[in-house]
Write a structure and sequence with these properties.
This protein folds into two domains: 87 residues; 80 residues, Gyrase A, domain 2 (2-Layer Sandwich), CATH 3.30.1360. 62% of the residues lie in helices and 21% in strands. It has three helices and four strands.
Length: 179
C-alpha cells in the first residue's frame, strides 16, 4: 500500500487557499465594480437620451401651441369676415337702386312744368309737387305718366291733387310707388 506523504505543510496549504480566495474575491469585486460602472454609464446615457427626447418633444409642443394660437387667430378673423360679409350681403339685398326712379323723374319734367317739391322715400316712393303753366303742359305730363305706367315698374301712380290756382296755372301733385 502506498501511503501518500504530504510534503506541503498545512499552513502553506491554507496560505495558498487564502491567496486563491483573495484573488477570487478581488476578481469578483473587480467584476462587480466593472458591472456597476457599466450600469451607471448605461443609466447616465439613458438619462441624456431621455433628456434630449424631452427637449425635442418640448420644442414640438411649443410649435404646436404656436400653430394652435395662429389658427385660433385665423378662425377669429374668419368669423369676423364671415359676419361682415353677411352684413354686406344684407345691406346689398336691402339696397335700393334709384336709377330707374330718377330716369322716370327726368321724363316727367316736361316743358311748362315747374317742379316745386320732390321727396324720394325709401323702397322707391317718389312724391313730387309742381305747377303746370297751361293745359298743354298737363297733357304732356299725363302722356309721360302713361308711358311710365306702360312699363309696369310701379305698383301705383296717382295724382293726389290737381287744382287750378288763382294765378291761372295748375298745381299738380304726383306719387309713384315701385313694386
Amino acid at each position: 500500500m502506498v501511503i501518500g506523504v504530504n510534503l506541503i505543510n498545512l499552513e502553506a496549504k491554507r496560505t495558498v487557499e487564502i491567496i486563491r480566495l483573495r484573488r477570487r474575491v478581488k476578481n469578483l469585486s473587480l467584476l462587480f465594480l466593472l458591472f456597476f460602472i457599466f450600469l451607471s454609464l448605461v443609466t447616465f446615457g439613458g438619462l441624456i437620451f431621455v433628456n434630449s427626447l424631452s427637449k425635442k418633444n418640448q420644442n414640438k409642443i411649443t410649435l404646436l401651441k404656436e400653430q394652435i394660437r395662429s389658427m385660433e387667430k385665423m378662425e377669429s378673423y374668419l368669423v369676423i369676415i364671415s359676419d361682415r360679409t353677411k352684413n354686406i350681403n344684407t345691406f346689398l339685398k336691402n339696397k335700393h337702386s334709384y336709377s330707374q326712379l330718377l330716369e322716370d323723374l327726368r321724363t316727367l319734367l316736361v316743358p311748362g312744368f315747374k317742379l316745386e317739391d320732390l321727396q324720394i322715400g325709401s323702397q322707391g316712393k317718389l312724391t313730387m309737387t309742381g305747377r303746370c303753366q297751361d293745359l298743354a303742359s298737363i297733357t304732356a305730363l299725363n302722356e309721360q305718366v302713361d308711358k311710365i305706367n306702360q312699363k309696369k315698374i310701379y305698383a301705383q301712380i296717382a295724382y293726389p291733387s290737381l287744382s287750378k290756382s288763382p294765378k291761372g296755372d295748375w298745381e299738380v301733385s304726383l306719387e309713384l310707388n315701385e313694386k
